[in-house]
Amino acid sequence: MSKKILVVDDEPDILRVVVFRLKKMGYEVFSATTGKEAFSLIKEQKPDLMLLDFRLPDTDGIEISKWVRKDEELKNTPIILISASSGPDILALVKEATVNEYVSKPFDPDDLLAKIQKYF
Amino acid sequence: MKIKNKVTLGFLAVILLSVAVAVISIYELTEIAKPLKGGIFKSAKTVAETEHLNNLADSIRYYDEVLTQSARNYSFTQDKKWKERYKKAEPELEAVIKEVIDLGDEKDKTLFRSVDAANRALVEMENRSIELVDKGKPQEAVKVLESREYWSEKEVYEKGLGDYLGRKELTRREAVEGARKTLDLAIKSADKIKKFGVGFIVIFTGVAFIIAVGISVVISRSITSSIAKLMKTAEKVGKGDLDAKAPVDSKDEIADLSRQFNKMTENFKISTSSLDKLSKEIAERSRMAQALRISEDKYRTLFELSGDAIMTVDPEKGFLSGNPATIKMFECKDEREFISKTPWEFSPEYQPDGRLSNIKARDMMEIALEKGSNFFEWKHKRLKGEEFFATVLLTRIELGGKKILQATVRDITNEKRLQERIAQGAKEWESTFNSISDLISVHDKDFRVVRVNKAFAEAFGVKPEEVIGKHCYEIVHGTKSPWVTCPQKKALGTKEAVVEEFFEPRVGKYIEVSAWPILDKKGEINGIIHVIKDITQRKQVETKLAEAMETKSQFISMVSHELRTPLTGIKEGISIVLDGSAGEVNKDQKEFLDLAKRNVDRLSRLINDVLDYQKLEAGKMVFSLKENDVNLLVDEVIRIMSPVAKSKNLYIEAHIAEGLPNAIFDKDKITQVLINLVNNAIKFTDAGGIVISASQEGESILFSVKDTGLGIKKEDISKLFKGFSQLEAGRERKKGSTGLGLAISQKIVKEHKGEIWVESEPGKGSDFKFRMPIKAKYKVMVIDDSKEILDTCRDFLTKEGYNIVCFERGLDAIKTVGKDRPDIVLLDMRLKDINGYEIIGRLRSNSDTSALPILVMSGYPEELIKIEDKREDSALTSIGKPFDLKDLLVKMRILLKQAA
């Protein structure tokens, strides 16, 4: 059974590219453009890994990851944060939220895939 | 002397005086008349005598004629009547001649003797002729009468008579003249007498009268004064002055009377003096008693009503009395309770100086008893225990032969508190003054130092108290007169604070010097607060900031440009694959190539926006201001934006007011603004649509882009027009915008001397508005003595939408600068009348043009350097000749932007 991956990004173009690539790799991919959609998909599908954009229109990747870590059933789900910003402040947030990986835009597709495969 | 005698003496004196006056007048009149009497008689006599002698001479002539004719006629006719006539006349003539000789003076006599002699000779010859006739010899007789002898005698005779007559005529004239003179004298004398008579009589009678009156007054006074004295004395005695004595200073009857009167008074006095003494004593005692009562009343009132606590104290026995204020002050029930206490009970144990209150109080009382009074400060205590400060005045008074003290106590708690507060305030002020790191000195209006703070004293190596009274310039500049640019001088004149900044090469620092006038109630300057501030750090930061801004600007500009190159490569690469020139593209490939292209375009847009923003901020954006039709502008925007609106199912409409005039603006830039606004409107509107409207509003055109979208929260509106800020807002980013659109729009509108704002209500939509002048032309004053340059500038700048005024002469330009009010001046440094520096100086010294942007155009590098050195004048910059007109425009725009 293929692994379920949730991709959350408010940029349709980015979403489209990432989803396309992951599907080609044989993963089952769900995508969301807002926090609201993301939460319902997480609860519904219980993905094996999440790619979260840092900034979303209604919330951000950090908030989602914090929520996930509090959930008994989901707290060990690997989370990779993707952001256009980089810098110490983001890194601090990453630590605090205990996301597993951090990828900055524009990302190298091979690097991203390697980081995903590490958890499977 | 008896009174009768006195009066008699007076009468005698008056009579004597009258006689004297009469005698004197008679004498005086006689004296005046004297010369008159003799004179008149004498002259009258002389005239009469002369007249008589003249008559005699006439008689002589007559008789002579009779004799001569008779003798001749007889000799010729021999008629006896002629002989008779002759004989009759002859003695007559002789008698007359004799009379003349008798009457005449010596000279007459001498003269007449020759006449007499000649007469005798003639008579003799005539008698001879008569005899000859008688003898019958008439021829002989005629011969005698016609002989030479006869005629010569006749001649002598005639001559003598003539001389005599001449002399007599002279004498007569003299006599008449003498008489006339005498008569004149007589008239004058008569006049004199008349005058004298009147004057003398008036004066002498007056004097006599006065003397007479004087005499009578003296006499009467000598009589009445003694009577008056006696009367006065009597009056005095009548009023009770028994010591009065009538004077006995004469020997008349009144003196006797006075003597008697005095004796009588003496007797009376002896009998009344004892009674008088008694009554006097009684009066005095009653007066004193009343005075005492009044003063007692006064004292009582004062004592009872006084706000000060007044009490009496016996140094040995304690309090004797206390007024109501005392009772109140020490919180006693009544005076009885007060008196029952000892003085120490109203004081704390110790006074502030550490002495025991009771010992010190004794000392104070001792001093008061000894010196009469003692004034000092005392710490008191009320009965309930509250302590307070008071002043005490102890005064020694005597009561029933015993020395006691009156104490006046005044509560000075409030004064004390106020004093402490003032002292505290002064201390705080002093500490504040000295803790300020700026160098502060306070001067009087004559530049003399009143005080300086610690920083000042340290900076100039002086002690604060040493410099008081010295001139500030001696300390600060080491000069004998105020510094040329001293702001204090200016402040004394304007009565307003003056702040100046400059670089002080002696200490290598930037200094801000300010002078703040201290005005009194009348608004006159009392003094000056002078502050020297080291602003080197601020200046350095300012400089660094400016440099940093410049670096940032250059960096962004460079990076953006650098980004464009690879971007072009990417874009072109994608395009080539996408259009199939590099082989067939399948569906998936096409999808991702489109995606790539879309994002590359977005990146290009972003870079362009950043560059635009940067250019606008640095003032390097070139605007092409031209006359444009607003209708065409809006049509163009509608045309571009319609497809975008349609894709979201939104309507887009234009409402343009009729008769809108053409306006001057950069069409591309304003189009960019409108597209920005419409784009935003479409992005944030999901239903409804957008209305673009344009209308005239005074001298401006008002544009509006109104949507029916989300609207904007009030707190977000202020952030709206700030560059890059929108990038932070997630909602904005989602729409794929750079967030620079509004910032750029605002800058463009400002460049057109306009303004942009938004009216919005969340949920109902937003209305972005901007307004700009119809003729947003800058006025440029070009001063250059080269006609060629003036023409070039005029042509080029007019085309660029500027208003131009040109001047070949600097003085003409300066004259009209107040009227023309240019926005910028382009200035050539070498003019025919005055040089450019002078023009700059004059413009800067006038408050209207002190910040007017000036762009110096010069072909001389040393002048350009000089201008660039004037860093402190930010509205002054330069451009080297020959210049590119585009560069000129850029420099102008930067200057204009800074000025705005």
Give a structural overview:
The complex is a heterodimer of chains A (120) and B (900). Helix content of chain A is 44%, strand content 20%. With 120 residues, chain A is an alpha/beta fold. Chain A has one domain: Rossmann fold (3-Layer(aba) Sandwich). In chain A, strands 2-1-3-4-5 form a five-stranded parallel beta sheet, with helices on both faces. The relative contact order of chain A is 0.17. The mean pLDDT of chain A is 86. In chain B, 60% of the residues lie in helices and 17% in strands. In chain B, helix 1 packs antiparallel against helix 2 (80-103) and helix 1 crosses helix 4 (138-145). The longest helix of chain B has 92 residues, at 148-239. With 900 residues, chain B is of the alpha+beta class. Chain B folds into six domains: 3-213, f41 fragment of flagellin, N-terminal domain; 306-417, Beta-Lactamase (2-Layer Sandwich), CATH 3.30.450; 436-534, Beta-Lactamase (2-Layer Sandwich), CATH 3.30.450; 542-589; 622-773, Histidine kinase-like ATPase, C-terminal domain (Heat Shock Protein 90), CATH 3.30.565.10; 779-899, Rossmann fold (3-Layer(aba) Sandwich), CATH 3.40.50.2300. The chains are: A alpha/beta (120), B alpha+beta (900). Chains A and B meet through helix 1 of A and helix 15 and helix 20 of B.
Strand content of chain A: 15-25%
Strand content of chain B: 15-25%
Mean pLDDT of chain B: 83
As for the number of domains of chain B, it is: 6
**Largest pleated sheet of chain A:** 5 strands, parallel
